[in-house]
Amino acid sequence: MEEKKTQSANKPAAGKGKKDNSNNNRRGRKRGGRKPQRQPKEFEQKILDLARVTRVTAGGKRMSFRCALVIGDQKGRVGLGVSKGADVQIAVEKAYRQAKRNVITVPMVNETIAHSVRMKFGAAQVMIKPAPSGTGLKAGGAMRMILEFAGVPNVVSKILNSNNKINIARATLKALSQLRTDEGDTKKEEKKPEVKKVAEPVSKAAKAA
Q: CATH for 106-181, among 3.40.50.720, 3.40.50.300, 3.30.230.10, 3.90.79.10?
């Protein structure tokens, strides 16, 4: 009888000796599982200017944030959006949506722009000129950001009369939208309707002669 008692005492209780590895297996699956792949973004984005602005109302001052955002794919497409929001994140999202609606395509020839252009927006004036390959991007401030996101590798530029980032960026976009290439000009010429020449009436004196 004593031997049986000692054997029963040495046996582990049911359910206590075995370890429950179900939770560990689940944790291992979560750790070892593949993460969902993120889709590549269509445009890269960067904040050009972020400011806190106030508006005076009847009840007092109302504070909001203004965000100027530049987007582009560095392959010829670039856009600018300026929007306000109660929070910084809201302002950035609204500016991104606006910039996506205002995307322009920059035509390039031999790794630079087709011709020189000068444009004005507000008090800001910008001048952009083509440059040979190897020159690089000779620009600064807001203009450099626009040209980088557009993917222009070689260009020489100058900013005149203003330090306002938003006006300079808008003037740069306006200048880039005015660029034309020879291919675009030839297509326009082909679409022009032909003008039919009308025969001039012959006078009686010419007929008698």
A: 3.30.230.10
